[in-house]
Structure formats: C-alpha cells, structure tokens
Amino acid sequence: MIEQSQVNVVLESLLNKKVLAILGAFFTIFLTSGGVYLIIMQPGGAVQTGVGTSFMARSSTSQTSTEFFASFFLTLIGVAGFIFLEEALRKTFDLRGAKMKYLVAVLPWW
Q1: Could you give the CA distance from residue 47 to residue 54 in angstroms, rounded to a whole number?
Q2: For residue range 10-35, what is the model confidence (pLDDT) as tens digits?
Q3: Are 38 and 63 in contact (CB under 8 A)?
Q4: What is the pTM of this model?
Q5: Whose CA, among 32, 51, 87, 93, lies 20 to 30 Å from 39?
Q6: CA angle at residue 26 from 46 to 62, to 5 degrees?
Q7: Whole-angstrom Cα distance, residue 99 to residue 46?
Q8: Rounded to an integer, what distance in angstroms lies between the CA atom of residue 7 and that of residue 9?
C-alpha cells in the first residue's frame, strides 16, 4: 500500500517551480498559436484557394490546423533560443561555452 508521505514526495517533485514554468510556457504557446480555435472550430489541414489547395492561405481569416502546428513549433524554437541565450549570458565566465550557446540561440534566425 502506498503511504501518504510517498504520495507527497511524488507530488512535490512533479509540482516544483521548473515543471510549473515549463507547463505554463507550453500553455501560453498553445494559446498564442491558436490552440483554442483549433479545438473549437476543428479546421481542416488545407483550404481551397483560387489557384488550388494550400496549407497556408494568404489574406484568409481562417486558420488551418497546419498553420497551428507551424506557429506552435516556430514559437517553441524561439523560446528555446531565448533559453539558450539566457543560459549563455548567465555563465559568461565560461567564455567558450557562452559563445557556443549564443551561436546556437542566434543562428536559426539567419
């Protein structure tokens, strides 16, 4: 039988500040990428345009599910870049490591 103290230890390890911050970041990215629209409206993966079928229609007021995944992962990559940049700036005494993390954070935008 599981004791109450074991349950408390598991809950404390799952609900620490780092895990809650990561969950909060994913929830925020989900919201800003249009996740609520995706769940409620359930759009298709492509839309019909005047030329044919497209995954991302320009000047359209609707969002496809493909656009949601693209914006979600691009935002996630941007957040990861800022985390690398913050880590590099935090450890500036380690010049070689700081330069490498800074390059990894900045290079995807070139």
Answers
A1: 6
A2: 778 878 888 888 888 899 999 988 88
A3: yes
A4: 0.63
A5: 51
A6: 25
A7: 41
A8: 5
